[in-house]
Amino acid sequence: MTPSDFHSIQNDLHAVFSALYLIDADQLSSEQRKQHQQALSAAYLAWVNAENAKFDLLSSQVKTELVQLAGQVRAVRDGVSGLLTPPERLGALAQGMDVLARLARIL
C-alpha cells in the first residue's frame, strides 16, 4: 500500500458515506431506518478515522489489512452507483457495514 492507495481509500469512504447520507429516510421502513442509522454511523466513523490517520504512522500490519479492505470498500462504492431506490442503496451499503467497522477500528 502506498500513500496514493491510502488516499483512494479515504475518497472511497467519503463516497460511501455520501451515498448513505443522501438516502431519504422518509422512503424507508422503520427497520430500514434503524439499519440506515447504523450504517451511516459506521461509515462516518470509518471516514473520520481515515481522514485523521497519518499514513506514515500506520503499522505494516495495518497497511497489509488496508490492502484487503480497500477492494471491499471499492466494491461497496461501485455496487451503490447503479441503484436507484433508497432501499436498494441501503441494502448494498449495509452489506459493507462490517468492512466499515473494521476500518474504523484499525485506523
Overview of the molecule:
This protein is an all-alpha fold and 107 residues long. The protein contains 5 helices and no strands.
Radius of gyration: 14 Å
Number of strands: 0
Please summarize the sheet with the most strands. none
Q: SS-based structural class?
A: mainly alpha
Spell the H/E element sequence.
HHHHH
> Overall mean pLDDT score?
88
In short:
With 107 residues, the chain is an all-alpha fold.
Mind sketching the topology for me?
Blueprint: H1 3-21, H2 30-52, H3 60-81, H4 86-95, H5 97-106
Helix pairs in contact: 1-2, 1-3, 2-4, 2-5, 3-4, 3-5
Keywords:
107 residues; mainly alpha; 5 helices
